[in-house]
Amino acid sequence: MKQVPLFSLILLLLLHAKKTTSQSPAAAPVKPPAPAKPPAPAPKASPVISVNSPPPPPSAQSPAMVAPIVTKGPINIIKILSKAGHFTFFIRLVKSTQEDLQLFSQLNTSRDGVTIFAPTDGAFEAIIKSGTLNSLSDQQKRELVQFHIVAKFLSSAQFQTVSNPIKTLAGSGTRFPLNVVTSDSSVNITTGLTNTTVSGVVYTDNKVGIYQVDKVLLPLDIFAPKPPAPAPAPPKHEKSESAESPLGPKVTTSGAETSFVRGNLVITGVAIVSVIFGS
Single Gene Ontology BP term (predicted)? Predict the structure, then answer.
């Protein structure tokens, strides 16, 4: 048997492998999987300030245009005022007079809503230091709180058309006059003793409006100087014992006519005196 040289054998194997490779179709390249797209970010919800969140920062606009606090769920006037801050004395006065219960009843039994003019802590300093607040009776303190509450909702725009004097829970008329007058962008409040303005909106939701005032609204009926008491009337003189009784007889004489009055009986007679001279 004739032996094939090793070099020739290797050459034949290389030629066969090349032919086989050229005849078989090339495998399609495998594409790597496309990377997954990141999920779209959720839309940002509009900020809602609840009673459990800190109060909004002060605005650069006028004080009456400060953004109000808004909340969801049942309305709690005390929590709203507490979260707004600087209403400590007004809150104590509302709770001590149990007007918070009256407000709760008003909000749950009436569709009219309420409007509250809330004095700041600084507004109470004058009447606290002077002792005026402590000198009030429980009834007067209750009326003082009620004088700051209107039994219907008033928006800032409605202040321009409201009829004066405004009726509060304390009453109206000459005893509790409360007048609201708008000028330009300000809301002025007068009571006959107090003249102040609405300096901010604490809370509003088309049913409850709480507006900040920097003075306590003093009603005339409580704080106006009382007129001096009238002088006592002079004592009446007692009748003398000799004064005739209303039931006793009354005698009147006119000329020769004499009348006796006893009760409803009148007796009139004419005295005739005859003098007879005997001879």
Answer: plant-type secondary cell wall biogenesis
Closest to 115 (Cα-Cα) out of 157, 85, 86, 73: 157
Q: Which residues contact 94 (CB under 8 A, 6 or more apart)?
A: 77, 78, 100, 103, 145
CA distance 209 to 206: 7
User: What's at 227, amino acid-wise?
Assistant: P
pLDDT, one tens digit per residue, over 100-115 is 998 988 888 888 999 9
pTM for this entry: 0.58
Structure tokens at 86: 């600087």
CB contact at 8 A, 208 and 75: yes
**Do residues 115 and 152 make contact, with C-beta atoms less than 8 angstroms apart?**
yes
Contact 170, 147 (CB under 8 A): yes
Q: Are 145 and 94 in contact (CB under 8 A)?
A: yes
C-alpha distance from residue 115 to each of 27, 107, 122 (Å): 82, 11, 21
Distances (CA, A) of 247 to 237, 243, 252, 265: 21, 11, 15, 12
Banded model confidence at residue 217, pLDDT cuts 50, 70, 90: very high
Angle between helices 99-109 and 138-146 (to 10 degrees): 40
- 185's tokens: 């962008």
Residue 61 three-state SS: coil
**What sign has the CA pseudo-torsion 89, 94, 95, 100?**
negative
